[in-house]
Each structure stands twice: as structure tokens, then as C-alpha cells.
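Course assignment 3, question 2. Fill in each field.
Student: A.L.
Task: Predict the tertiary structure for the chain below.
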Amino acid sequence: MVANPRIDNATRRSPDESEVAELSLLVPAWQISALEQAAEAEGITVAQLLRRAVNRTLAQMTLHQPGYYYG
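Answer field:
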């Protein structure tokens, strides 16, 4: 799949993001299929979809008090 070159606010990189780390994620197979379908519907890769979700979650953290559970 070819990723859509469109970049929204949730996926923009700040200049200080020169280092990256690999994250292993164990999820049921049906969730992988669902992630692939959701990413394809957006025209992006699964990695981009997950980065977007992480960025949005972290952005929300500043709106709530420390210790708030987002689950």
C-alpha cells in the first residue's frame, strides 16, 4: 500500500524528533485486520495510523490533570 502524502496536525513531526524507537505491540489478529482496513480507508499505513493515535492521546494528556485514566 502506498501512503497518502497528506500530513495532518496529529502526524506532523517536530524538529526534535530525530530519534526513534521500535515498539512491539501484541494484539489479536482481528485487531490487526481492523487496523489495516482503517488505515487503508484513510489512505495511510498502519504505522501512520498508530502514530496518529499516539499523538492524539498525548495531546489530550495536557488537557487533563495528572493521573487521569484515558482507557
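Instructor remarks: The chain has a mean pLDDT of 78. Helices lie at 29-42, 46-61.
Grade: pending
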